[in-house]
């Protein structure tokens, strides 16, 4: 036993060293290089003196104040609204929707990449989109209305797009947290004291749920404040959000613009840190107000109308997301689609007919990136979890923070600096470097998805195998991995979805020489040919769907005679 614990500590130490070297170090190096450029140090373009000139140039940029306002309004607004809807929906349907059923319903929305969903929403919400076509006969429109429904200057379309993606994620996170609490007992006790369902949720259940979902909410907030792909497609264009403005500066032919862009990238990081600080301050304020409310008592307040409203809005968001995904496929097959017809008059496969000179190469590159990064992340996650098991220790708080770190730091704050480091090593633009960059973001999701099923494995299986003489490695490969095949493949499907969705890592680390479905779809989203855009976005959304289908089908086939090993048996 002592030898096994020693092996566990060695394995865990090796994995931790790999995580630090492969994930933490690139982020630190990227932030360091971005910080140097932000303060005037970039010898490659002749800037070799520390200076505040980049910050002055950034402050003088036209529209900077508007970009900051748009970033805060869209990022914080989308996160707050998504959280309220997810909490209200879970409070209304809990007991009628299991975690397993919720996962199956939400999987298509989680699998769809952000860019694909944004393109579908643009097709849906545009003045010539499905919604306007549906209202045209009623309102007497003989042509598309002159309304800024996409790329509106207030960021409304961007907020809606972020909510369509983030509400399902938060719903799944909250459902998972609720499975760890005696919710039914709390509701019964509260109702017996005369409180309504909504008040019991606010006063009793949510204070217990919040610590379990705080980190995922921070991930949502960090992404919403620094999103580039969705902001390019749905957000305001002139001026844009801060992240899009920085991307334009980094891509400017004038290399001196890299310096104010780097300063802006640091500012983007500061905004996220301040948002986190505001979140913690709000948590303390709500806690103090909640304690006062609990002590005051009272049963006259009801939250039932709010729960019904949250349910309706959440259902509408999910329906909007489903229609957005359908519109991608529809536009890729449409040929003639006059206004205001709800369906095309004629159909064609012409947009799909040239894979060799079009989407074929981008599809192959995307598959290679997804397979490579997911395989690396899975190997690292399994080694980490096995090391914890053998050492017999629980994960420390700092280790969990390390796992979440790539999701909490804005991508644009360190990816340019990381590309500078890769340029010095001579690997920028290399496919392997892009796989590594994808792994930075795939690993946290794979690790989070696999941790709970791994810990829930019945230890009696391992003890029985050990009593038959199986060593630790044989127990891993002959017992653990076969039993956990469904969670492992599910984590792999999540990894594929995350990799396919990566835009900035592919763009920056690929140095413009690695074209994936996501980079091409985002570029094409501003073109006038919706058919070609629909093809790329459909393929981009289709790959994660195939991965999830394989995650469900493979265990069902392999374990068809072993019900306890199927997804139903181990869920």
TrEMBL record:
Gene3D superfamilies reported in the protein's UniProt record: MetI-like
Chain ranges of the ABC transmembrane type-1 domain: 64-280, 363-558
Keyword Membrane listed: yes
Transmembrane segments: 9-32, 70-93, 105-125, 154-178, 212-235, 255-282, 309-337, 357-385, 397-419, 431-450, 483-504, 535-557
Membrane topology note: Multi-pass membrane protein
Domain of life: Bacteria
Primary subcellular site in the record, as a coarse category: membrane
SUPFAM superfamilies with a match to the protein in the record: MetI-like
Pfam family, one: BPD_transp_1
Keywords: Cell membrane, Membrane, Transmembrane, Transmembrane helix, Transport
Keyword Transmembrane: yes
Cross-referenced InterPro entries: MetI-like (IPR000515), MetI-like_sf (IPR035906)
Subcellular location as annotated: Cell membrane
Family: Belongs to the binding-protein-dependent transport system permease family.
Record's protein name: ABC transporter permease
Organism (species): Tropicimonas aquimaris
